[in-house]
Design brief:
heterodimer; A: alpha+beta; Alpha-Beta Plaits; two-stranded antiparallel sheet; two-stranded antiparallel ribbon; elongated; B: alpha/beta; Rossmann fold; 2 domains; 7-stranded mixed sheet; 5-stranded mixed sheet; globular
Chain lengths: 97, 392
């Protein structure tokens, strides 16, 4: 479905609300569920990628410099990356408006 | 080859109607008074008469869940339950209708615990009123058989794609041997097209079924579901008409018995209609102007046909076989009242709750309820409900 979710009318709903388009979960913004956000001290980062492996949302991407950073559109702020990072790069901080 | 009229227990006949409908999968858990239906199905599969997968599940919740999976692959699927079993299925019933998966189910209507009671009433039927299923209430064994076959045609129709319950009164119908015309296989094959679900589970064309919908989509999904169920009405009528052409037996949302022009109408659902019709005959012989209207299609509710059927009456005597605790009495009666609320000229409505937990309602019982309804109406009053026959 090419329409944005807030433009979909009841007539557009597929039979039984079946999702026929694969991968459209990516459009669902889960970032606003977050109450804490990861912050980074890359001085300590060894670019091991363990945070990316453990991220349950699959939202950690590697930047041009090889560092791993969570995409805030999807990051729910669970803190698993901070817990698993072997060198203590990541600190969770309270989100502020 | 034409169908043959035989003496058969209604439960067995229901199982054989499912067999004649060529079901592919049966997932069921036995519970009184539905037991004979699923036992006979298990027997038919075991002895090779019915080429289907019989899944003996560990609960009714699992039964309905397994049925949903089966229907989603494109398999024609049947199950049956009763009372407490229907309650245990409850949450999955909503999933069936909202996912538009046409499971066909026979419910042997039974009272709900507690006190524990295995006998018939319509408490279970009323508890699933708003689950979004098409609901047909059979008044006798022939109606049960015919409407199981119709249910597959209706539910699987691409314009409908909804699960269908065929309600049959526990014991009063399920355990009674009736003369029933069992359609032949050729006739049913002629009537019933193969099941062809438009978006089946298929690894070549993957889809996501049962995904969640956030607040931005949920109301749209619910409106689509409601419009679909209401819109099923003409398709239901079309299949009943087709059935009449094929089999010569006519079905509609309502059944009328000596109701034309009657000033007092008895309103019933299910097997008590037969007893009520005997009471109507007796009252007519005594010169009383009384008729009977039986509701066959409970969902979608046939508002237009219903309003038309009671238009000329002065008094409705509505007999419920369930209680809405702390609410407006009988669920059937409260819907009748709601359906008439906007009418400029409407009959007086007197509600009775009777036959709970297998308490028999006799011909004399119907006469008494009608007399009592008339007595109330003569004073200009109406009645939300009265539990008939309870010892004071």
């Amino acid at each position: 479905m090419s329409k944005k979710e807030d433009e979909i009318t009841w007539k557009d709903i597929e039979i039984g609300a079946i999702v026929t388009e694969p991968g459209n979960t990516a459009e669902y913004k889960t970032g606003d569920w977050r109450s804490q956000a990861p912050t980074y001290n890359f001085d300590r980062c060894i670019k091991c990628g363990i945070c990316q492996v453990f991220c349950p949302e699959g939202c950690i991407e590697q930047d041009a410099g090889g560092y791993f950073i969570a995409n805030m559109y999807w990051c729910k702020g669970c803190g698993i990356c901070a817990r698993e990072c072997p060198t203590g790069v990541i600190t969770m901080v309270e989100e502020t408006e | 080859m034409m169908g043959e009229r035989i003496g058969i227990e209604v439960s067995q006949a229901i199982a054989e109607a499912a067999m004649l409908s060529n079901v592919d999968v049966v997932a069921a858990y036995p519970i009184t008074p539905q037991t004979h239906i699923v036992e006979h199905l298990a027997e038919l599969v075991a002895n090779g008469e019915l080429d289907a997968e019989y899944i003996p599940v560990e609960s009714e919740h699992s039964a309905m869940s397994a049925c949903l999976g089966a229907v989603a692959t494109g398999a024609r699927t049947f199950t049956a339950t009763a009372g407490q079993g229907l309650e245990l299925m409850h949450e999955v019933l909503y999933v069936a209708s909202s996912m538009r998966l046409p499971v066909i189910m026979s419910v042997a209507n039974r009272a709900l615990s507690g006190p524990l009671n295995v006998w018939g009433d319509q408490s279970d039927l009323m508890s699933v009123r708003d689950t979004g299923w098409i609901q047909i209430v059979a008044a006798n064994g022939q109606e049960a058989v015919d409407n199981i076959i119709c249910a597959f045609a209706i539910g699987e129709d691409r314009r409908v794609l909804l699960p269908v319950m065929v309600h049959v009164d526990g014991f009063y119908l399920t355990h009674v041997i009736e003369p029933i015309i069992m359609p032949s296989q050729e006739e049913v094959d002629q009537f019933l097209p193969p099941y062809d679900y438009p978006l089946p589970l298929d690894t070549e064309k993957p889809v996501t079924m049962g995904a969640f919908a956030p607040p931005v989509l949920y109301p749209e999904a619910k409106k689509a579901q409601d419009v679909n169920l209401r819109g099923a009405m003409p398709v239901i009528l079309e299949h009943w008409d087709r059935f009449e052409k094929e089999f010569g037996r006519k079905y509609g949302p309502l059944e009328h018995y000596r109701s034309e022009g009657a000033k007092t109408l008895l309103l019933t659902m299910g097997s008590i209609g037969d007893t009520a019709s005997a009471a109507v005959d007796k009252m007519r012989d005594e010169g009383k102007d009384v008729g009977l209207v039986q509701l066959r299609l409970w969902r979608p509710f046939p508002f237009a046909e219903f309003r038309n059927a009671v238009r000329d009456a002065d008094l409705l005597v509505v007999v419920d076989r369930a209680i809405s605790f702390g609410g407006p009495g009988g669920p059937f009666c409260s819907e009748v009242r709601a359906a008439l609320y906007d009418e400029e000229k409407r009959p007086k409505v007197t509600g009775f709750i009777a036959g709970l937990g297998g308490r028999d309602i006799t011909v004399a019982g119907f006469e008494e309820m009608v007399a009592r309804g008339m007595e109330i109406a003569e004073t200009g009053a109406e009645q939300e409900y009265e539990i008939y026959g309870v010892r004071e």
